[in-house]
Amino acid sequence: MSKIIIFLLLLLSLGVIGGILGFSYYKSSLDNSFGLEEDKIFTIEAGDSVEKILDNLEKEGILKNKQLFLIYLKLNSEEAANFKAGKFIIEKDSNLLELTKTFQDASTNRDDIAVLIQEGLRYDEIADILEEAYSEVPESKFLASEYISISENPDDYKFTQNIATFLADYKPANKNLEGFLYPETYYFSKTATAKDVIEKQILTLSEKISADDYKEIENNDYTFYEHLVIASMIEREAFSSDEKGDIADVIFKRLENGIQGVKLLQIDATLLYQAKDWKANPFLIKEVDGPYNTYKRTGLPPTPISNPGIDSLRASLYPNSNNYYFYLHDSDGNIHFAEDSSEHNANVRKYINN
After folding, report:
1. 3-state SS class at 157
2. Could you give the domains of the chain?
3. pTM over 0.85
């Protein structure tokens, strides 16, 4: 009899432990980030059921386990009842609890235009994205041509006081806005003008820079604009955030020490910017001279070559000290650094020529 009791108590204990572990897993899953590579725009149509919403979230790669979300919504039925229809921005670091609040928030579900502007684009590429986003808005005041005109000749336009002050402090006279048009996922008003959009992007950049960043900028040997130029190259050259600090240090060493005494940056992305073609073969255009040919011109290019995110700007402000002067990416996107030209040439033979 005592053995049966012990057996039943053991089963009960295992059940309690399993329940605790299961609940712990459930709670931690609610707080865990989705780990998306970028922000995503997600649409809930009027009349969509909870099951359909979860299916769509799974199809678009936002949810990996829709059952957990379903359990949460069944335990908190009032949450799903308050879901709104519309377009929502799902931030890449969101979790299930934040996603639930997003779907309930009418302020993120206005009739505004949701636009995803990725890191590393030129201002003309951004203009094309915005033009497409506004193309189906009858009351639209946005003009891509105006966006490009302001980007190219910002000194000819009058901005609101805070934007004008930021540009006066950090943008040299007669320079365009390349680099200042912060990449982000935005909600823009349907009636926004090109200048409204540009001001929002510049304001976002100014707000992304922390107090510590501003302090570092003030005490740095390089100006903010020079860091913005370097950050724009890092954005185009790096394949992942982990590489950015090391690439930044390579760029600074090439600027200050040069390669075999010649202070050429030799950055492929500047050639592609000059060609206005990110897919061009840099080896075929190295001999095309111009202000952005860093194989022929020493020092920094005259402007940023893209609009970088805050990670790239911080990589420039806080580079990862190393002994490298060269790097390349293999066909799988893995980066290979080298301390000298002989080591780099060996990497070329191993990872590129083969």
Report:
1. coil
2. 35-110 (3.30.1490.480), 114-208 (no CATH), 211-322 (no CATH)
3. no
